[in-house]
Amino acid sequence: MADLYEQERELEDFFQAARDTAPVPSAALLARVLADASAQQPAPVAAPRRGIWRRLSGAVGGWPALAGLATATLAGVWIGYAAPGAVGDLAISVWPGGGVAYDVVDLIPSMDGYLTEDGA
User: Fold this and answer.
1) CA-CA distance, 90 to 84, in Å (whole number)?
2) Rg of the Cα trace of the chain?
3) Among 28, 39, 60, 120, whose CB has the most other CB atoms within 10 angstroms?
4) Do 11 and 3 meet the contact criterion of CB atoms below 8 Å apart?
5) Maximum CA extent, the chain
6) Quick check: helix, strand or coil at residue 17?
């Protein structure tokens, strides 16, 4: 039994000596490993350029903002095309003292009045 304990202690001394003097790779080996690793790596690829629609979408605020702009555009076209006569009647009934309604001709006179002045 004492012999087994003595052998384990001798082995432990050898293991401790091996732990204390760990092998260090040479500088040439490290240089070769790094050169081989850099040769195996793929070349960097340039990022693809974003299209004009993606750049505009990002500048405006993304797809939710573009959806709001499209909705506002369609509403403006619809209101402009539909000639909202009922909106004027609604404004007259809601606005106090709104009994006076203006015609478009009153607000935007035509060129006929200027042309009848004999060019002066």
Assistant:
1) 10
2) 44
3) 60
4) no
5) 136
6) helix
User: How many Å apart are CA 50 and CA 42, to the nearest integer?
Assistant: 23
CA distance 115 to 7: 125
Cβ distance 91 to 98 under 8 Å? yes
Please identify which residue in the block is written with the tokens 């909202």: 84
Is this prediction's pTM over 0.85?
no
Whether the CB-CB separation of 117 and 109 falls below 8 Å is answered with no
- C-beta separation of 32 from 41 below 8 A: no
Report pLDDT digits (tens) over 75-96: 988 877 776 655 666 666 666 6
DSSP per-residue codes, 82-120 = S--HHHHHHHHHHSTTTT----HHHHS--THHHHTSTT-
